[in-house]
Amino acid sequence: MFSRLRADIRCILERDPAARSAWEVMTLYPGFHAVVLHRWAHACWTHGFKWGGRFISQFARWVTGIEIHPGATIGQGLFIDHGMGVVIGEMAEIHDNVTIYQGVTLGGTSLARGAKRHPTLGNGVIVGANASILGGFTVGAGARVGSGAVVTKPVPAGATAVGNPARVIEAAAAARREETASRMGFSAYGVTQNDDPLSQAMRGLIDNASGQEHQIALLWQAIEKLSAHPGTRDCVPGDAARDECFEADKLTQLIGK
Which pathway does the protein contribute to (predicted)? Predict the structure, then answer.
């Protein structure tokens, strides 16, 4: 019991730069109070004292503004930052080292009793403020859910879900795009990392430029093979552009400072 309390306090001190001491966390952090009270409520619930579990959860809701159903399963290291308005449903499962911000809902869309109605959050998931995750699916380990997102389908491990309805951005695709952008000397993420139309347009330009660069490389390889065969007429144009000319400065001026 005490080891789990120490782990809960330590995770808050590690993830919240505003936390200055363990005493401050124990006495003034509603997210910590909600998790501790939930453990008591969950113990009552699993041992058959349903009314007692609901009473403790309602008391915690009144004291902290955070509503966690006593049937929810919570691992170690859950940090509910600020926490006001957080709602966690009965069949939600939260694994270790998860961070949840204020206004988050882990809810369900099914009315079937006994069915898995609420989501499962894998290890290290971060859920932004006012996000809603609705349904009995899994948000994979290390995934991130953006503020205000409405997620109604599974999120792969390491991916990011943003928007309403949520769009899943694969971590591998984002990494490849950023690598291409840095090689060309321009990165849309240097302007904005959100999902606004300008950012989408710039990401599309970078992806398109990357694809053209690859196709040009394949064409040059084919031309060099043809020109290497004896008796084949020289088909390499003398004025072919062999150097890349990606004018990042002009693109930056077009989108503004």
Answer: Amino-acid biosynthesis; L-cysteine biosynthesis; L-cysteine from L-serine: step 1/2
What is the tens place of the pLDDT at every residue in 42-79?
A: 999 999 999 999 999 999 999 999 999 999 999 999 99
Same domain, 89 and 203: no
What pLDDT digit, counting tens, does each position of 86-139 carry? Answer: 999 999 999 999 999 999 999 988 777 778 899 999 999 999 999 999 999 999
Query: Same domain for 194 and 163?
Result: no
Kind plus residue range of the DSSP H or E element containing 160: strand 160-162
**Residues shown for the chain:** 257
DSSP 153: S
Distances in whole angstroms, Cα of residue 196 to Cα of each of 74, 131, 191: 34, 18, 11
User: Do residues 96 and 49 share a domain?
Assistant: yes
Q: What is the 8-class DSSP label of residue 155?
A: B
Q: Which domain holds residue 224?
A: 173-255
Residue 207, CB-side half-sphere exposure with 13 Å CA sphere: 10
- Entry pTM: 0.67
Contacts for 203 with CB less than 8 Å, ≥ 6 apart: 177, 188
Question: d(Cα 36, Cα 142) in Å, to the nearest integer?
Answer: 24
Instruction: Give Cβ neighbours of residue 94 (< 8 Å, ≥ 6 apart).
Output: 72, 73, 74, 75, 78, 88, 106, 120, 121
Angle at 243 between CA 237 and CA 247, to 5 degrees: 130
> Which of 91, 150, 149, 148 is CA-nearest to residue 121?
91
Does 190 lie in the same domain as 177?
A: yes
